[in-house]
C-alpha cells in the first residue's frame, strides 16, 4: 500500500519561485548597462535624433529675420547657401562616418559627431555676418550628418534585429514630430525672440546629451583597427559636393548649360577616380563588394528612389497648401498632421509585424505599394480634391514616407556583418540624402516647367515667387496662378508616382530577410556582458569567468575557430552586429 504525499508550498516559496522565474525571463541589458544607463542613453538618443531632424528644415522658416539682421542688401540671393552648406557637409561626410565607426568603434565617433554639432550650433548663434553663418552651418552640418547615422549604428550594435524592430515606435514619432514642428517652430521663434535661438536651443540639449551618452553608453572597442582611406574620403567628398552644386545650379538655370556642366563633369571625374581608388585600396572606404549583396544592392536603389520621390514631397506640399489652399506658413504644420499620423501608424505596425513573423519583405512591398498609390492618388485629385480626401491620401503618403526607406535600412543592417555595420548604414543614408537632394531639384524643375506654361497669362512664371506676388494680383489672375500651381503640383506628383513604381519593382525583387533565422544563427554574447566589471563582487566575477572559459573550451573543441588576433579570426559574427566571442574587443 502506497501513500501519496502532497508537499504544500508556502506563500513565501511561491513568491520566491515567481521572482526567480521573472528574473530568468527578463533579458539582461546590452553590454552590462544598468537599467538607468539604458534609459538615459535612449532619452539622449531620441533628443539627438530630434535635433538632427529639425535642424535641416527649421531654418527655412526664418529667412526674413536672418536676412534683415545680417545682409539686407544681398541676403535673399545668398540665403539658400545656408541650406546648401549644411547639406553638402552632412552628405559628403556620410561614407567617412561609416568607416570611422567600423574602425574605432561607434561610441567614439558618435560622441565626436555630437561634439562637432554642438560647436557648430554655438558658432552659428554668434555669427555676425551671413558669410560667417554659412561657414558655421557647414561645421554644424559636418556634425549633424553623423547624428542620425551614428544613432542608428549604435542602436543596431546594442540590439539584435528582432529586438530593434520592436523598438521602432519612437523613431516614427520623432519623424512625425519633425514633419510638423519644423515649419511651425522656426518662424515664430525667430520673429518673437531672435533667429539665434534656432541655434541656441541646440546648445543645452546637445550638451546634456553629450554628457549623458558619455556616461551611459557602453560598446565594444575594437582591439585591431582598420586603416581609414583618406584619399578615398577626399575623392567621394569632392564628387558629392560637385554633383550637388551642379544640381543646385541646374535648379537655378533650368538647363545643363553655362556653369552647370563644369560641376557635373568634375563630379563624374571625381566619382570615377573614387571607384578606381576603391578597387585598389587595401581598406576601401566603401567596399564595392557591397553592391554584389542581394539585400544591400536593391535596398540602396530603394533608399535613393525613396529619397528622390518621397522625402522631398513635404516641401512641395507645404507650398501647395500655402499658394493653392491659402494656408499661412505658420499654420501649415497643422494641415500636415494626417501625414504625421501615417508615419506613426506605420512605425507602430511594421515593428510589431516583423517581431511576430520575422519576415521583412512583405512589409516593405506593402508600404512601397501604399506610397505609390497615395502619390498617384494625390496627383490625379490634388487640383480639385475636397479637404477630407486630401487628408486620407496624406495619411497613406505618411505610411509610405515612414516605411520605405526605414524598412530598407533595417533589412540592410540586419543582414550586415558586424565589421561592416557602419559602412552599410552610412552608405544607405548617403543614398537617401543624395536622392532627397537631387529629387528636390529635379521635381522642382518639373514644377517650374509645368507652372510656367500654365500661368503665362498671369505674368508670373516662377513658382518660387508666386506666393509673394499673389496678394498683389486681381481676382482673375490670382485664380489663374492658383490653378496653374495646382496643375504643376499634379504633374510633379505623377512623375514621383512613376518613380515609385520602379521602387515597387525593386522591392519585389529584393531577397527576404528573416530576423528569426538570424537570431538562431548567432548568439548575442554582448547582452548581459558587464562593461563595469570592477563593480561586481570578485567571487561572482570569478565564477562567471570560469563558466565562460569552460564554455569556450567546449565550443573550441567541437568547432575550432581561427585565433582571435588572426585577420580572419572574427568567425561567428552575428548578423545583428552584436559581435562574436573572442573577437578582440572589450567593453568601454
TrEMBL record:
Instruction: Give the Low complexity compositional bias ranges.
Output: 1-13
Comp. bias (Basic and acidic residues): 14-27, 541-561
What Pfam families does its record include? MFS_1
Instruction: Provide ranges: composition bias, Gly residues.
Output: 571-581
Annotated localization: Cell membrane
Key word Transmembrane helix present: yes
- Keywords noted in UniProt: Membrane, Transmembrane, Transmembrane helix
InterPro entries recorded for this chain?
MFS, MFS_dom, MFS_trans_sf
Q: Which PROSITE patterns match?
A: MFS
Residue span(s) of domain Major facilitator superfamily (MFS) profile: 41-514
Transmembrane portions of the chain: 36-59, 79-97, 109-128, 134-159, 171-189, 195-217, 229-250, 262-279, 300-320, 332-350, 362-380, 392-411, 485-510
Per UniProt, what is the membrane topology? Multi-pass membrane protein
Q: Please give the residue ranges the record annotates as the region Disordered.
A: 1-27, 525-588
Q: Which PANTHER family match?
A: COMD, MAJOR FACILITATOR SUPERFAMILY
This protein's name: Major facilitator superfamily (MFS) profile domain-containing protein
Biological classification of the source = Bacteria, Bacillati, Actinomycetota, Actinomycetes, Kitasatosporales
